[in-house]
């Protein structure tokens, strides 16, 4: 596609349930990032994939969060046993070179009730 | 530990005037800086960037200034237009442990009124 695509655009779930968020980066982009933005806060780094290198997971807030990427394509972010504080917009971005201009998707608005 | 700081959460400017958005950083490893613009319900979009080898970069109505000694950068929008109303994020990256990651500030909500 022409841009970064994320699905679903909105997700409402009950506390304790697992959720899976999907990101389709721009074709050919080797770097893929997940950020989240909680209400009134800035963009919080979660995880970064670069090619076949081990991902930088240093931003994941707890072991309930995990992410995978298949080659240089689709990525999924999984949150297990969701908590209310996980409510946020989860943004995915990709770039052709690490640290270069990032192209963001429209995000997934996650609401944990 | 906020390594990129935008201390003004909001700014209100009249159409036609200059908007100045400020950003400070703490990590001396940062050597590349970017500004992103975000409308509600959309992802951030890239606006302009500057490398640490420069102190100014201009693109149309947008100019970014970098003061490395003060670890400070600013975005100037002249003239401001109502369509510029959005949240502006400052971001930084560099070498060492920062390589490949973009560190973002909390954003400044710019409102341009007619």
Please give a structural write-up.
- The complex is a heterodimer of chains A (113) and B (114).
- Chain A contains no helices and 10 strands.
- Chain A has 113 residues and is an all-beta fold.
- In chain A, strands 2, 4, 5, 8, 9 and 10 form a 6-stranded mixed beta sheet that branches.
- The model of chain A has no long low-confidence stretch (mean pLDDT 92).
- Chain A is globular, with a radius of gyration of 13 Å.
- Chain B contains no helices and 11 strands.
- Chain B is globular, with a radius of gyration of 14 Å.
- Chain B starts with a strand and ends with a strand.
- Chain B has strands at 4-5, 10-14, 19-25, 30-38, 45-51, 56-59, 62-67, 72-77, 86-94, 103-104, 108-113.
- In chain B, the strands form 2 sheets. In chain B, strands 2, 4, 5, 9, 10 and 11 form a 6-stranded mixed beta sheet that branches. A 5-stranded antiparallel beta sheet of chain B has the order 1-3-8-7-6, with no helix packed on it.
- In chain B, 0% of the residues lie in helices and 55% in strands.
- Chain B is mainly β and 114 residues long.
- The interface between A and B is medium-sized, with 22 and 25 residues.
């Amino acid at each position: 596609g022409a841009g970064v695509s994320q699905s679903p655009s909105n997700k409402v779930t009950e506390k304790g349930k697992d959720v899976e968020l999907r990101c389709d980066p721009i074709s050919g982009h080797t770097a893929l990032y997940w950020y989240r933005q909680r209400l009134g806060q800035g963009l919080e780094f979660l995880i970064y994939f670069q090619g076949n290198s081990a991902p930088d997971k240093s931003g994941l807030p707890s072991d309930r969060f995990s992410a995978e990427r298949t080659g240089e394509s689709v990525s999924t972010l999984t949150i297990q046993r969701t908590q209310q504080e996980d409510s946020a917009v989860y943004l995915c971005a990709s770039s052709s070179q690490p640290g270069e201009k990032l192209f963001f998707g429209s995000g997934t608005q996650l609401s944990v009730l | 530990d906020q390594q990129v700081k935008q201390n003004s959460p909001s700014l209100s400017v009249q159409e036609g005037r200059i908007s100045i958005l400020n950003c400070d950083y703490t990590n001396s490893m940062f050597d590349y800086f970017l500004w992103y613009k975000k409308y509600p319900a959309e992802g951030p979009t890239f606006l302009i960037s500057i490398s640490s080898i420069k102190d100014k970069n201009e693109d149309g109505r947008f100019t970014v200034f970098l003061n490395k000694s003060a670890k400070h950068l600013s975005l100037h929008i002249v003239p401001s237009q109502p369509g510029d109303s959005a949240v502006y994020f400052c971001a930084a990256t560099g070498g060492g442990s920062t390589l490949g990651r973009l560190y973002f500030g909390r954003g400044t909500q710019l409102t341009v009124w007619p």
